[in-house]
Amino acid sequence: MPDATDGEFASHPCAPRRSLGGKVPGLDAFLARAPTPIVRERGDAAASAGEDRTIVNEFAGLRRAANRELVEERVGGGTLDTGATVPAGVLEEMKDYYRARAGEYDEWFERRGRFDQGREANGRWFADAADAFAALDALAMTGDLLELAPGTGIWTERLLTTATSVTAVDASPEMIEINRARVDDERVDYVVADLFAWQPDRQYDGVCFGFWLSHVPAERLDPFFQMIAAALKPGGKLFFVDNGHRDQTSTAADQPLPTPETQVMTRRLNDGRTFQVVKNFYEPHLLTAVCAKVGLDVTVHQTPTYFLYGAGTRQG
Ligand SMILES: C[S@@+](CC[C@H](N)C(=O)[O-])C[C@H]1O[C@@H](n2cnc3c(N)ncnc32)[C@H](O)[C@@H]1O
After folding, report:
1. CA angle, 144 then 176 then 125, to 5°
2. C-beta separation of 207 from 236 below 8 A
3. CA 150 / ligand 1 centre spacing (Å)
């Protein structure tokens, strides 16, 4: 089987420009700085899909325990009652926050600086991230895709392994510039817009959003998914990934997560500035139900410690 980025296939207009394999951004750096046994066992080869699997396996025991707790904790609960509605000023402040944070954003995903939570928690993080990336890869989103809130391009890069084109809509020009430099790909059309006002003017073969859903206020969830359904062709694919557990190690110690009674939390930048943002931890079955109402057949999975991801299609 030839590599899709090599030879004759590479000249096809739909051919992926690069193959990321199972690579997870930040994993190499984590492995390089992690104390033994991870580094000793792995030697120099820190970038292959096989190593992503190794780290998954290493935490398999922890995962099984976490899964058992999850079933007890998550089945049954979950409503849209997350307290007071979010004032418009918080949505504006959230845009300002991400503009100011753009240059330090990847520290969060790559578990660096204030987001380095130690070997075990970081290991769980990268294992869970590998699961989410694998789920996106398995969905194989082809054709013209829409990515909402693409940020620095962690998921854009991945979408480009299968997409013909990506329309990437984000409110932050700073995020978009970092994304553009990272993916360096003419197939991406960047749009600077506010997603609480923006509406699609065409339909896409697929829609993807990473770590955006948790920033959508509960009272806006229904209209948000109506917009998603309108943006998808019948049979079009949907993928989203986000924080799926209220776990304090998912963020920095100096920014406590909100309680279930509130949708708003305070975020801090490295220079100490603080901003109010929306942060919700939606239940999988609630998301499945909201999607079903607008004709989206979506299955939502939780990874053991950190994430949830939804994958599905718009009904034909
Ligand atoms: C948590 S980041 C997610 C980035 C990327 N998808 C990822 O997974 O790393 C949230 C993104 O939403 C963008 N954003 C915040 N408020 C927005 C709004 N009202 N409209 C559009 N984008 C917004 C930010 O600029 C930022 O890029």
Report:
1. 85
2. yes
3. 6
Question: Is 211 near ligand 1, meaning CB less than 6 Å away?
Answer: yes
Structural domains of the chain sorted by starting position, each given as residue range(s) with its CATH number in brackets: 27-76 (no CATH), 86-314 (3.40.50.150)
Q: What does each C-alpha distance from 34 to 22, 79, 129, 296, 303 come to in angstroms?
A: 19, 40, 17, 41, 22
Q: Which has the higher per-residue pLDDT, 15 or 227?
A: 227
Beta-carbon contacts of residue 248 (< 8 Å; ≥ 6 apart): 256, 257
- Report yes or no: 52 and 46 within 8 Å, Cβ to Cβ: no
- Greater confidence (21 vs 150) lies with 150
Amino acid symbol at 300 = V
Comparing C-alpha atoms, which of 214, 266, 254 is closest to residue 115? 254
Partners of 311 in beta bridges: 239, 299
Exposure letters 165-194 (e unless 16+ CB within 10 A, then b): bbbbbbbbebbbebbeeebebebbebeeee
Tokens 């590479």 locate to 10
Token reading at 258? 């909100």
Cβ(171) to ligand 1 under 6 A? yes
- pLDDT tens, position by position, 270-292: 999 999 999 999 999 999 999 99
Atom 4 in ligand 1: which residue has the minimum CA distance? 151
pLDDT tens-place string over residues 250-265: 999 889 898 888 899 9
- Compute the distance from residue 197 Cα to the ligand 1 centre, in Å: 14
Mutational pocket test of ligand 1: of 98, 125, 146, 195, the residue with most ligand atoms within 8 Å of the beta carbon: 98
> What b/e readout covers 262-271, taking b as 16+ CB neighbours within 10 angstroms?
ebbbebbeee
Q: Is the CB of 284 under 6 A from ligand 1?
A: no
**Distances 20 to 16, 27, 85, 168, 311 between C-alpha atoms, Å:** 10, 13, 40, 20, 20
Which ranges of the chain would DSSP assign to H, the alpha helix?
A: 27-33, 38-42, 49-58, 60-74, 88-101, 106-109, 119-139, 156-159, 173-183, 221-231, 284-293
